[in-house]
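Sharing a chain and its predicted structure for anyone who wants a worked example. Both blocks are below, sequence first, tokens second.
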Amino acid sequence: MKSGFKYSDDNKRYHTQNYHLRHTFGSKVAKISLDAGFTCPNIDGTVGRGGCIYCLDGSGSGSPDSLRCQFDTVRRKMNEKWETDKYIVYLQAHSNTYAPVEKLKRIYEEVLGFEKVVGLSVATRADCLDEEKVALLEEISKRTYLNVELGLQSVFDSTAKLINRGHTFDAFCRGYDSLASKGIKVCVHLINGLPGETREMMLESVKRVADMDPFSIKLHLLHVLRTTPLEKMYEKGVFETFELTDYVSLICDQLELIKPETVIQRLTGDGDKEHLIAPLWSMKKFVVLDEIDKEMHRRGTFQGSGRK
């Protein structure tokens, strides 16, 4: 049954990534995550070591397999799930603009040259951008589909300091503006449930990001993973993770604050099952998404319906 939401042709009451890509490319598009071997200034000592407190791989070591091998392996798995011949390469691990521009260009061009690839998604940090790198991204965006994902996690500098983020909200805004001013599609990544944050703070982060009018937003649930500094904080009782019902309620509140045009790339997350400590209910991703759908239907609300 259709929801009646402008940017939906099914029961969804928010602007899904799947809807956006199908209407952009005319059919299903699969994202293929690759590890290009980048590190991060918050890992190698430039601004910090060990990464953010929730980061599982604080070493910054990349996959031993070539990009070509990774692509072929993931594509085979994708084709077992969906019928598609269109792919977006997602450079996900660590900061994928943290290298000389010559290296970035070589890697970007290599993956864009793989068969049936229709676009590129680059995850990075706002403090890993300069004029030369932004110019490269702008050039690529003019000839193919490009999305640049900037990790923010929270608009509160007190939280950024606690999680060892390594940059301020002002620094994020400068990086964001450098991309958005060139017409580059930017996705902002936020995490719900960070230590010390209240529900009101999480809503405020979404409100302030939504007012920046990004192309897309990712809302991620905090996962406590083994071997991370966050694990020790959790064991000491410094913070608690969400219960499913509370998380669903928060997500619906946040969706109501986001403009309908903004694409929602994610509302939960897939934690590493081998290392996940809490919350274990997050492993049932489709249950979480179904509960969000049911809650929005119960409320009778849509993405953006709570904006003033």
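Comments welcome. The mean pLDDT is 94.
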